[in-house]
């Protein structure tokens, strides 16, 4: 058994993910199970959400999990074992009004991990996607008219 080690990671900061993955692999030697369970969402009309915020949502919900997965994957492939889990959302299957960026990021993640599942079969690596329905999560209440602050984490 290994002593637990806390490693902080902002999944939306793509530039730091490789270093965090290296730190984890240097500490433990391998990752048996990778659970991608970070997410960010915003609620608002498409025309009210800035492109910058759309990009932040994509970084956290799509590029973050795939970047971390790609950083850990070579180790799993070389060992020919491992499990990768994406905790996604039902909105990765169906979109609802006022969640365009969130739904788009979850659709993209679902597509990526569906393809990954097929590719990893020959290496004995299991890839799963979980699509829960609506859940209660931390929410910062925005000031009126301030959609940028309407981020759920």
Automatic annotation (TrEMBL):
Glycosyltransferase among the record's keywords? no
UniProt-listed GO biological process terms: intracellular calcium ion homeostasis
- GO MF assignments: oxidoreductase activity, acting on the CH-OH group of donors, NAD or NADP as acceptor
* Entry keyword set: NAD, NADP, Oxidoreductase, Signal
The record's section on Pfam families has: adh_short
InterPro entries from the xrefs? NAD(P)-bd_dom_sf, Sc_DH/Rdtase_CS, SDR_fam, SDR_family_member_7C
Domain of life of the native organism:
Eukaryota
Q: Does the keyword rRNA-binding apply?
A: no
Family membership noted in the UniProt record: Belongs to the short-chain dehydrogenases/reductases (SDR) family.
Q: What is this protein called?
A: Dehydrogenase/reductase SDR family member 7C
Q: Species name for this entry?
A: Ciccaba nigrolineata
| Annotated gene | Dhrs7c_1
